[in-house]
Design a protein that fits this description.
Length: 213
Amino acid sequence: MRVFWFSLACMVLFLGCTNKKKEAIYNRPAIFWYQGIFREILFMNLETADNYYSSLQSEHINSPLVPVAMLALGQAHLKKKEFVLAEYYFDEYIKRFGNPENIDYLKYLKLQARYYAFKNHSKDQEFMSNTIGMLNEFVDQYPHSRFIDQVEYMQVKFILGQNELNRAIANVYKKRHQKEGVKRYLGRVDEVLEKETHPKKSHMPWYVAMFNW
């Protein structure tokens, strides 16, 4: 019986300490969360870093540390090839802290996330079309940006990728003997750009090609 009560007392004491630890993790100064974010980024523990950011942003929404942490997390997710999360942070930064001085840089970062995600979405028509629209918009709006050369390079790569996608879809219609579909998708190919750039067809292993389209 004494063993039971001793065990129960230990359990209560343990739960009490655990609750204190849980309580202690809230209502911390902004610098506590900020330092935690960068510590976790350093070790690439981005899920924990994201959680620390949530606490920073909910407890200290007007802190000047919020935008710095937001941008750092976007770049960390980009480095870790978590492109959707990277784009999320860049989008949020643009909405909340974008201004005429930094907007081209922020949009460039967002386009970078899309560019690196290109391989994963090479057959996604909507992704390709939307990204090309974003790239065209950047070139039109910021022709004198210091990032214009990089953006124009991405623009060419995406258009060539879209050309290849359109040819692949046209090939599907050709196999089904649907001439209108073939004509429609081949009509979307930018022949002029292809003549200027002489692109090489994307390499596709035979075991992938067997199931392609």
